[in-house]
Amino acid sequence: MQTLIPESMSTPVSGPQTSNEKHGMTHANQTFEQLAEPFRRELRLHCYRMLGSLHEAEDLVQETYLRAWRNFASFEGRAPLRAWLYRIATHACLDAIASRKHGPRLLPDQKVPATNQMPDGKPPAEASWIEPYPDAYLEGIADDAPSPEVRYSSREAVQLAFVAVIQQLPPRQRATLLLCDVLGWSTLEAAALLGGTTASVNSARQRARETLARRYPDGRPPVASASNPGQQALLARYVRTWEERDLDGFVALLREEAVYTMPPQPQWYAGRDSIHRFFDWAWKHYLDFRLLPTAANRQPAFALYSRRSADAAWEAHSLHLLTLEQDAIASLTLFVKPTAPDLFKAFGLPLALTDTDRTA
């Protein structure tokens, strides 16, 4: 079990302690860990949805546990511990959003028009983009809340595009949508957590739904089945076209109106022709590619390694997230350098491969 209490805070900073006092504090710390630790994964996911960042979510869930531990003695059990922790986590996220120097984390296609220009390799220093979320962190979290309040399933509400579009909501609307339409809280419960009336929560929820309806006219994001044999064959072809450097074959896997983004670069490309021109330019800088399967945001994903010469090492290059629609790729997001190495570490992926490593 991960230690929740910093060692430097395990005892008061002033005054001697009796053995009974020390025993009582140790017992309280152990009790807090035992009660609170089972909620860590779902709280981290909640923070990720609020912030759009894996790394910020890690920091904020730790902040949540620190705040909760400091106030555990005053927790009187008048509300369930889970609800109390969500209250702390949500307000910690709202505080973090309010203190940001830059705007919300988005994807490039939400901020600037598509281009046909090639990037210069220098992403803007101030840019902060959406980050992917490892499926390994979703293990042990229920896929659906058994509440009539739920509008979006857990699988829908973790997709990269969904997380990106809710970042465009004002923070309070975002929190309301997540609490009510994703987690299944009632408007009364959400009002108690956020502060305010049920009418204000219902109003914020309705405005949030209207924003999402502009992105999802059918009322919900499409969800592709990972077990579909046709899609599994499509993913196998995707790997093969990259490793064989078959550019025409790769582009043929895309929908005609496909979108390609590559955070932290701000440029993005729309349509097969533009995407073909980009990769015709980009692939000339590399000799070989190798892909390893992974999983992120309940979407197909791959870790790509590259080398520029036959005697060079295979280095971590980019993390690929694919959105599939029927029998083609509707969108492709590559998280590239300089952020890629940190993401590889978070996903438990090696930063280099040997020639004996093979794709699964």
From TrEMBL:
Keywords of this entry: DNA-binding, Sigma factor, Transcription, Transcription regulation
SUPFAM superfamilies reported for this sequence: NTF2-like, Sigma2 domain of RNA polymerase sigma factors, Sigma3 and sigma4 domains of RNA polymerase sigma factors
Source superkingdom: Bacteria
PROSITE patterns: SIGMA70_ECF
Keyword DNA-binding appears in the UniProt entry: yes
Residue stretches making up the SnoaL-like domain: 236-330
Region (Disordered): 1-24, 105-125
Keyword Lyase part of the UniProt annotation: no
Signal peptide as annotated in the record: none
Domain RNA polymerase sigma factor 70 region 4 type per the UniProt entry, residue ranges: 161-212
Biased amino acid composition, Polar residues: 1-19
Residue stretches making up the RNA polymerase sigma-70 region domain: 36-101
Family to which this protein belongs: Belongs to the sigma-70 factor family. ECF subfamily.
Subunit-level organization: Interacts transiently with the RNA polymerase catalytic core formed by RpoA, RpoB, RpoC and RpoZ (2 alpha, 1 beta, 1 beta' and 1 omega subunit) to form the RNA polymerase holoenzyme that can initiate transcription.
Protein name: RNA polymerase sigma factor
Organism: Dyella halodurans
Taxonomy of the source species: Bacteria, Pseudomonadati, Pseudomonadota, Gammaproteobacteria, Lysobacterales
